[in-house]
Amino acid sequence: MKKKTKVGLIGVGKRIKVFHYEILEKLNFDICGCTSKTEKSGQAFESKYNVKYFNTIESLIKEAKPDFVVCAVPQEELKSVLNKVLELNVPAMIETPIADPEIVKLSQKYDVPVCVLEQWPFLPIELFKQEVFDAEIMSRPFLVKNDGRSFNYHAMAQLKSYLSPSLPILAYGVNIGLESPEFIDQGGKVKKEPELWDIGNVRFQNGTILTHEFSYHCKTAPFRPMQTLRSYSDNGTIVTGKSGPLGEDYDILEFKYLKGQETKVMNVSVERVHKEQAPTKISDEESGVVWENKFKNLKFSDQQYACAHLFALMEEVIENKINKNNLYTCELAYFDSLLIYAMQHSARNGSTPVNLSGKR
After folding, report:
1. Strands 68-71, 92-94: parallel, antiparallel or unpaired by DSSP?
2. With bands split at pLDDT 50, 70 and 90, how would you rate the model's confidence at 85?
3. pLDDT for 357
4. Neighbouring C-beta atoms of residue 157, cutoff 10 Å
5. Per the omega criterion (within 30 degrees of 0), is the bond before 353 cis?
6. pLDDT tens digit string along 22-66?
7. ∠ CA 315-317-323 to the nearest 5 degrees?
8. 139: which DSSP letter?
9. Which of 189, 247, 283, 318 maximizes the CB count within 10 A of its CB?
10. How far apart are the C-alpha atoms of 213 and 232, rounded to whole Å?
């Protein structure tokens, strides 16, 4: 019988309680201990979840001996916490965003796996797109666009996953701010708040372009319909997204590609047991492209599935089944933040382009 992978929790706040704990438990990990900034919160977590509380990171690691730890701590504490963990030679999973280059340097200093919990590229519909590209139904795109679908660095992670690897050379940005009229949001509340847009693009060495347009009004205002991610290849187009703030990523499923001179339309089938659960299968019969849910019996939501995918990758790294470079690394996550900051820096400086040549 396979030995359970042991997981320690550093931080026991909302992110752990309402999200990670359930996923780890369903994946049958042994949650062997926790630690917290305050003894009161740590002991309360121990009492409610029956997870032993340790008063320091060092005691958690030395006594409970986790195979890896999940660090759900404030950004200003992350560097100190991660340093303690890696010094003790324990793999770590940390939260987004990674905006501090010192976190990247720290992850490179030790030969210990570190995975960033950037789940957005690993949502089921995103993994289906990867199946389409890998099957060479369409070539990798020359233009990708976030049209109000995903927040800043999450959008960068998703859009980058479509592209062939290449370094950025130039970023451009502009901000739009306007007074919004009063409106009734999707929850029935009257709102009146400024509407702020981040808009920008990045050019890469291989000529590909990444375009980003986002405002929170896309999430809250019913009069801002359709939030999409778009991908344009030389022989096809993918557009997916929500039809409105209360929609879901399966509302819009446009997959069109050339077969010879003829345009083919993929009839994407999304099989689900329940609307609140991730699909069990996403497929297109004619092209033969299929994505299957490897956790279909665990009844995860889309977001839970994506995080479970990352936890499972870390387990495979620990078991020496795959290389740690298969994880979502600090370098990748910092790159996501770098692209956003470059666009925002351009916007703050009269839309002056930012030279990114040599940035990795």
Report:
1. parallel
2. very high
3. 87
4. 25
5. no
6. 999 999 999 999 999 999 999 999 999 999 999 999 999 999 999
7. 155
8. P
9. 283
10. 16
Directed axis angle between helix 330-348 and helix 101-109, to 10°?
160
Percent of the chain whose predicted confidence (pLDDT) is above 90: 92
Question: Residue 244 burial (CB < 10 Å; 0-12/13-18/19+)?
Answer: middle
| Helices 302-318 and 124-134, axial angle in degrees (round to 10) | 60
Mean residue pLDDT across the chain = 96
Tally of CA atoms within 13 A in the half-sphere of 51 that contains its CB: 30
Residues in the chain: 360
At 130, the amino acid letter reads Q
Q: Shortest CA distance to 38 belongs to which of 84, 80, 67, 73?
A: 73
Question: Distance between the two ends of the chain, CA-based, in angstroms?
Answer: 43
Burial status of residue 177 (CB atoms within 10 A of its CB: 0-12, 13-18, 19 or more): exposed
Using alpha carbons, select from 72, 1, 82 the residue that is nearest to residue 31. 72
Contact 10, 80 (CB under 8 A): no
- Cβ neighbourhood burial of 321 (10 Å; 0-12, 13-18, 19+): exposed
Say which amino acid occupies 325.
Answer: N
pLDDT digits (tens, 9 = 90+) for 139-149: 999 999 999 99
Does the pLDDT at position 97 exceed 80?
yes
